[in-house]
Amino acid sequence: MTDPLSRKVRRALHPLYRSLETRVHPLRYLFIEITRRCNLACRHCGSDCTTETPFQELTTDEWLRFFEFVGGNFDTRRLMLVLTGGEPLCRPDFEKILGGLRDNRLYWGMVTNGYALDERRLRLLNEARLWSVTVSIDGLEQNHDWLRGRQGSFERALSAVRLLASSKIPMMDVVTCVNPRNLAELPEVARTLVGAGVKKWRLFSIFPTGRAATDPELSLSDGQFRELMDFIAGMRNGAAPGGLAVEYCCEAFLPPHVDREVRDDPYFCRAGICIGSVLCDGSISACPNISRSLVQGNVRTHDFKKVWETGFASFRDRSWMRTGECADCTHWSRCQGNSMHLWDAERGRTARCFHSLFPSS
Length: 361
Hints:
Number of helices: 13
Radius of gyration: 20 Å
Distance between the termini: 25 Å
Structural class: alpha/beta
Oligomer: single chain
Strand content: 5-15%
């Protein structure tokens, strides 16, 4: 968590920073959806992952050639690749994938549910120079296992967290998907994470895509969302145990007076601006959970660097999103239609507006 003065300066300069980033659009984060396979059956999965995949996924050789392309065409000192899924550890030939990352000296991280992480796999990750890792802990045991759809997943995830916290990996954090069932136990989750050695905790609320779109048990009510914001603000104002750094994920636009209480940096959806992704079938997009209607090409048939440099117009000029409740909104210049992963392509509007939950703003 940055100091108050630094946050104040960064917020004052944020409009200029956002304008420059959008104009220059340097690729800083590249999500690699290495597979849609998964060893869990999460109720909220935005990608609707299963043990098998309906996609013709890139072969191991195709991924290795892509890693070589990235290494030869981008400044890898300033680009972070993030393996995601599905569950990255479910990828066949995962050790060869790690070899490709290592051989091309790529700066990389991983998002995992932790179920399959053990000392042997951690050793392989370290040998491939893993820089950062995020593990999901979604409540205490009963509610985590309920959300993740597999008994024992909490103990596996917590064991992975302890293992990672005691390792030499430079950056490790935990992310929690907040829903009505685990909201009240967040203080105890915080204490559990501190006891496991966690230093940084990010929280987010479920957005209506994939399986979550048809499961009303998962969405926070307006009052519960405000309760979550109050909890995070309280944690950041001295209530966090053990010096735990707590933050709301970069999920959606919030009114400035709320935003500065729950985040270090002001809201800025960087999808397609400095964040890109390659999906499991080679599709070129921004964040992996964004509607496939916004795919910009495919690495099997397109030059990824050229697509990044000349494509993504719909991400960098979002005036087309000014529809529905956004059309006359006074927050448009800062919000610009909300996060791209909240765009409802079927209805042609944002799936949810968060600033409207705080009428006084």
